[in-house]
Amino acid sequence: MYKNNSVVVVIPAYNEEKLIGKVMQSIPDYVDQIIIIDDKSTDRTIDIVEASTNDKIILLKHRKNQGCGGALATGYKWARDNEFDLAVRMDGDGQMDVDDLIALLDPVAEGRADYSKGNRLFTGKAFKKIPKLRYLGNGFLSFLTKIASGYWHIADSQSGYTVINKKALQTIDWDNMYKRYGQPNDILVRLNVENFRVSDVPVKPIYNIGEKSGIKIKKVIFTISWLLVRMFLWRMKEKYIIRDFHPLVFFYFLGLLFGIITSCLFVRIFALWYLTGHIPPINALAAMFSFMSASQFALFAMWFDMETNKNLKA
Fold first, then answer.
1. Looking at 240, 269, 289, which one is the last position of a domain?
2. How far apart are alpha carbons 277 and 15 in whole angstroms?
3. Residue 89, CA atoms < 13 Å, CB-side half-sphere
4. Which DSSP state fits 173?
5. pLDDT band at residue 121, thresholds of 50, 70 and 90?
6. 135-162: per-residue pLDDT in tens?
7. I need a surface site. Which of 88, 104, 259, 295 has the fewest CB within 10 A?
8. pTM, whole model, 2 decimals?
């Protein structure tokens, strides 16, 4: 128990034989249950977990690999069905410092937030500790996630170190959550649609301890970016059209429309410049007017979204 809340730690694991034992040993005593979901590992992960003498550990086995999001969904559904107050998500690769766990638990345990997540980018040492390509990719996806999710105050959207409360566990449809590496982005969008409060908590970045990442940055950037586009459109429909109406959807639509028109006008301008050697002033004026209109509509839409969701910052 932690502050009168029952706590379960959910650990998705796939081929984590090197570090899963260390992770299990590091879990604090106030944690009531530890759920490890083996996502069809091909190494000794299952053997190591089953050899543990910790009676708090329960091992759930997938018959086929479902991805980190699929394994997490299995653990969350178990936590929901067993009515735990708080569910902590940790990974089996040892990259999450248990010393940060209390800071993550407090906002949710004290009722200030429904969901808290770690932010590894907050510390000034992040750029030195996190591999440069992953740092830049994370920053880019964090920016897109702000727009897609409506949680403008959060960063490090790819962090999997989180705490979620019972109400959110019971509300989110875990069967429809994205199953692969875009899961942290997907869940933020779903939480926003349900108006859950989210807290961003600084945590220590841990790398180069023997972990092996299965993430291919160049592929994941495009995959998650496309996921965020789809989830953004879904959030606009669900939150601002179906459940309640807000005119910001018109601003986003007009921003997109003028953005397309701007692209066409600039293509025409460069084509005329290439063919004739000069640009007609009226064409340049039309392109600039369209660009300014697209920018203003998009910025006003973002501002409306920030104002609507500012009470969800915990």
1. 240
2. 61
3. 28
4. -
5. confident
6. 888 889 999 999 999 999 999 999 999 9
7. 295
8. 0.91
Domain of 100? Answer: 7-240
Concatenate the DSSP letters of all residues of 230-298 into one string.
HHHHHHHHIIIIISS--THHHHHHHHHHHHHHHHHHHHHHHHHHHHHSS--HHHHHHHHHHHHHHHHHH
Q: Are residues 45 and 61 in the same domain?
A: yes
User: What mean pLDDT is predicted for residues 213-240?
Assistant: 86
Contact, 79 vs 60, CB < 8 A?
A: no
Q: Are 201 and 104 in contact (CB under 8 A)?
A: yes
Rounded to the nearest integer, the mean pLDDT of the chain is 92
Using CA atoms of 131, 186, 140, 95 in order, give the dihedral in degrees to the nearest 10. Answer: -20
Residue type, 127: F
**Beta carbons within 8 Å of 27's beta carbon, 6+ residues apart:** 9, 34, 56, 98
pLDDT digits (tens, 9 = 90+) for 34-56: 999 999 999 999 999 999 999 99
* Six-digit token string for 29: 């005593």
Pair (172, 302) in one structural domain: no
What's the number of domains the chain is made of?
2
Average pLDDT rounded to a whole number, residues 234-263: 97
| Distance (Å, whole) CA 231 – CA 188 | 10
Q: Is 103 found in the same domain as 153?
A: yes
Instruction: For the beta carbon of residue 42, count every other beta carbon within 10 angstroms.
Output: 10
- In angstroms, the first-to-last Cα distance of the chain is 23
